[in-house]
Amino acid sequence: MNPAPGVLVASDLDRTLIYSAAALHLTVPDAEAPRLLCVEVYDAKPLSYLTERAARLLPELAARSVFVPTTTRTREQYRRVRLPGPPAPYAICANGGHLLVDGRTDHDWHRAVRDRLAGECAPLEEVGDHLRRTADPGWLRKRRTAEDLFAYLVVDRALLPGAWVKELAAWAEPLGWTVSLQGRKLYLVPRPLTKSAAVAEVVRRAGTTRTLAAGDSLLDTDLLLAADAGWRPGHGELADTGWSAPHVTALAERGVSAGERILAEALRAVAA
After folding, report:
1. Thinking of the domain 122-190, which architecture would CATH place it in?
2. End-to-end C-alpha distance for the chain, whole angstroms
């Protein structure tokens, strides 16, 4: 691994840098829409995109900083994504539960995470049992666990009762778990399972002195707060709730255009 530059850039992926067709938020006429590059294919179907300009900016950013994809995706889901440029030397998956170094799982980090979860929050099995009892088949589409670390539901947003989500959050809070609703997915994640803890470990290993971050959801708040500067798109859970912090820029851009703007701003900050 080459000696690290002084700046680390940690960015969420889905709905921050890369976007499904349903999340593009293109509001310009078709003739003016940006050209897109597909960066994820699953079951022979294109899943995720970024703009062609973003595809040019990302390798330049990675050459000038330690760029760290920082995602709630499992390792398997992350490895489906083919970002432009060389492979990232570090990547954070499962909301901080797994640290990849040159594409390989750091098992010591994962064991340390599991030890912390066992001591600070209720077990995943208890959360799973509660979801099985309370989730209504009328709006529930899928129920999943990720890396044996957290749970998520795929839901019909039009039918999902807001009151049920609030009740779930109130039930989970004293057990040490948090609830985050992102698109059609509702996540239940242990509070100690954070992206910022994993980023701090990468900072320690890489020897960087400044951290920039980007994210759109409740699960990104700790990452954004721990950074020296950051950005959030004009869409998503944080935008919907009006979340802000003095050092985090709330962008007006929504969808795939926000991903492009984040990369441009990060590159400008690194160059400065």
Report:
1. 2-Layer Sandwich (3.30)
2. 24
Residue 218's nearest CA partner among 202, 195, 201 is 195
Type of residue numbered 230: G
Q: For the domain bounded by 7-114+192-271, which CATH number is listed?
A: 3.40.50.1000
The segment(s) of the chain belonging to CATH 3.40.50.1000 are 7-114+192-271
Is the pTM above the cut of 0.85?
yes
- Give every CB contact of residue 32 below 8 A, 6+ residues apart in sequence: none
- For residues 139 and 130, give the distance between their C-alpha atoms in angstroms, rounded to a whole number: 16
Contact 249, 231 (CB under 8 A): yes
Residue type, 70: T
| Residues 202-254 pLDDT 10s | 999 999 999 999 999 999 999 999 999 999 999 999 999 999 999 999 999 99
